[in-house]
Amino acid sequence: MTAPAPLADGERPPAAGALDVERLRASFPILAREVHGHRLVYLDNAASAQRPEAVIEAVSDCYRTYYANAHRGVHALSERSTDEYEAARGKVARFVGASKSSEIVFTRGTTESLNLVAQSYARPLLGPGDEVLLTEMEHHSNIVPWQLVCEQTGARVRAAPITDDGDVDLDAFARMVNERTRVVALAHVSNALGTVNDVAAVARLVRDRSGAAVVVDGAQAVPHMKVDVSALDCDFYAFSGHKMYGPGGIGALWGRGKLLASMPPYHGGGAMITRVTFERTEYTVPPHRFEAGTPSIAPAIGLGVAIEFLESVGLDRIERHEHALLSHTVEVLNDLPWVRVLGQGAEAGSPRAAVVSLVVDGAHPHDVATILDEQGVAIRAGHHCAQPLMERLGVPATVRASFGLYNTHEEVDLLVSGLHEVRRIFG
């Protein structure tokens, strides 16, 4: 793996335990470019993070030197591709605290992982009168798959409320868990508000009141904090490579081994079988049962390298750095009377990840994003695939700044400077 750039002559190392952000930034080629004549300030990490050179090189090296179809051939290239692909699975298992690599299913991302659970686990289980319990802060990818499976089975979706400060109302949540609850699905971290849900506490509550499976959308958690599925005591955990400095088109689902073994395939094709006749097909064991067809070999390998990169930097250090950025951002924005920050109120009880959603008086979020882009600042504007949450907050859309390990306090100040320009234009 490519190491961060060395210190220049006369350059001081960072304080013990702190990130050397400038050296890390040098590992990300795209951060050196300009946008509209300004240095790129990339604050859209909740949508997709950028890739370090090590990931880019790993994917390129696969295609350049040894790519072939995995699990298919006995020639040297196929064996190398298979070994690297399965080694990446092992890295994912270690990264999330799985007990064995066979509990890791490679998918195209969090969305496919959640659809897999909905169709392979929940659909055979659900019937009329059964319930799937979500929260009001869920991403559409953790709403629509459950609606689809409920339409197919006669079950229904319910949503636990959140407070005005963006926390799940755990008292209301507890009252909604009952003997009809078959699945509880929630985000580990809200993509729009940054709320860090106490998954372990939710899992304990569910175990006490129901036999429901606990399904976690971890897309916004894994790049920013240590995740241990055993400690969380969930049943399924889904995440995506492109949000954690890895390639697009690859993600993973962790599931308890006994549950995966009980589930039928999500889709059919080559590689997920032991025997096929025109009368019947016998399926292989997980995880390959759920990976029909030619796998995403190079992206999976790149995901493994992204994990190594995160581990080399240190998730604890990343979390501290990003929390400092979040605190600085909220403090500065709260001094602007014409800016309203959502979900970061003084009464918020849950921790927050480095995501800030805001609205600017008199300016539509899309106009704010356009003006910031002219300053080289990349943010996201819209409903963030969380329309029910926007309705709960009473806004059609927000401006969202989301931070990664390579962002700096200076970039926060450039964001605020861009907001002042928005204020000047809109009066």
Description:
By secondary structure, this protein is of the alpha/beta class. It is 39% helix and 16% strand. The chain has 14 helices and 17 strands. The strands form 5 sheets. Strands 4-10-9-8-7-5-6 form a 7-stranded mixed sheet, sandwiched between helices. A 4-stranded antiparallel sheet has the order 13-14-17-16, covered by helices on one side. Helix 5 links the parallel strand 5 and strand 6. Helix 4 packs parallel to helix 5 and helix 12 crosses helix 14. The protein is globular and about 70 Å long. The relative contact order is 0.16. The N terminus is likely disordered.
Would you summarize the structure shown here?
The chain is an alpha/beta fold.
Task: Supply the key terms.
427 residues; alpha/beta; seven-stranded mixed beta sheet; four-stranded antiparallel beta sheet; 14 helices; 17 strands; 39% helix; globular
Radius of gyration: 22 Å
* Distance N to C terminus: 50 Å
How many individual β-strands?
17
Strand pairing plus helix content: what structural class? alpha/beta
Number of helices: 14
Kindly estimate the percentage of residues that lie in beta strands according to DSSP.
Answer: 15-25%
What is the averaged pLDDT score? 94
Query: How much helix is in the residues?
Result: 25-40%
Q: Spans with pLDDT under 50 lasting ≥5 residues?
A: 1-16
| Shape verdict | globular
Strand order of the largest sheet: 4-10-9-8-7-5-6
- Note the main sheet: 7 strands, mixed
